[in-house]
Design brief:
By secondary structure, the chain is α+β, with helices and mostly antiparallel strands. It has 2 domains: 1-50; 73-188, 60s Ribosomal Protein L30, Chain: A (2-Layer Sandwich). 55% of the residues lie in helices and 12% in strands. The chain is built from 5 helices and 4 strands, in the order ααβαβαβαβ. The chain has helices spanning 2-45, 63-78, 97-112, 130-150, 175-181; strands at residues 85-87, 118-123, 158-164, 183-188. Strands 1-4-2-3 form a 4-stranded mixed β-sheet. The radius of gyration is 37 Å and the shape is extended. Residues 47-54 have low confidence and may be disordered.
Length: 190
């Protein structure tokens, strides 16, 4: 029996040693893989394709090239942001001085490219009946269209539609929200 105990112990210690060596070998392999991955990442970061390219500046060679650059710069500076909507007063389709300022910007933009066609959407806040607001939205869109026509924009470039209170831009019942929904919106026609 004692012999059997010693043999079992020796066998157990031998197997434990083998498993411990195998575990150390696996840890070593894992560490080597991690080091290899780290080296690959560093190599990728140092490749020319991934480095940030530095712009090269070329000197202006002649007056013609300088004039072309100046024209391009002037065009970029003349680009303006065109607001797409105007806000109306309560139960009104009247063009106020504030609205005229925005519409003048839109007119200038439309005059800059005669191929642009637009749809003017008339909108209302949620107060009133559906039918009344459809009619009021149409009056608002027509007011903007008439202003465009008076300023020289061709009628075939401008269409109108009324959504009444069906498409609010904002939801809620505060005065600010209601005011933002009383609008005419300029949409470029595709």
């Amino acid at each position: 029996m004692f012999n059997h105990f010693i043999k079992s112990t020796v066998l157990f210690l031998t197997l434990s040693s083998l498993f411990a060596c195998q575990s150390l070998k696996n840890r070593s392999l894992i560490k080597e893989k991690d080091n290899t991955k780290q080296e690959e990442k560093e190599a990728e970061l140092n490749t020319p394709a991934l480095q940030t390219p530095q712009e090269s500046f070329k000197p202006i060679e002649d007056e013609k090239q300088a004039n072309e650059i100046n024209k391009q710069t002037e065009q970029e500076q003349q680009e303006i942001e065109v607001p797409d909507r105007v806000l109306f007063g309560y139960d009104s389709s009247e063009i106020s001085p504030e609205i005229k300022t925005t519409l003048d910007i839109q007119v200038d933009w439309l005059k800059s490219d005669s191929t642009i066609k637009v749809i003017i959407e008339g909108h209302c806040d949620e107060r009133g009946t559906r039918e009344y607001n459809i009619a009021l939205g149409e009056k608002r869109a027509n007011s903007v269209k008439k202003y465009f026509l008076k300023k020289g924009i061709s009628a075939d470039r401008v269409k109108i539609i009324s959504y009444g209170k069906e498409k609010p831009a904002f939801f809620g019942t505060s005065d600010d929200i209601l005011a933002k929904n009383r609008r005419a919106v300029l949409v470029v026609k595709e």
